[in-house]
Design goal:
Elements: H1 32-42
């Protein structure tokens, strides 16, 4: 059971979701490999 609508929360907008994530370099240096890894990770789905 979802909470009732109040303030900015509206339960009609609730959807199932697996979550989110990101790929980053700890030292903050730009890298093409980080972009490639992020793109490959975005296609991952549970159960594959």
């Amino acid at each position: 059971m979802l909470p009732q609508k109040q303030g900015l929360y509206d339960p009609t907008f609730e959807r199932g979701a697996c979550g989110t994530g990101f790929v980053a370099r700890v030292k903050g240096a730009a890298s093409r490999s980080v972009v490639k890894q992020g793109l490959s990770e975005s296609s991952w789905r549970p159960g594959k």
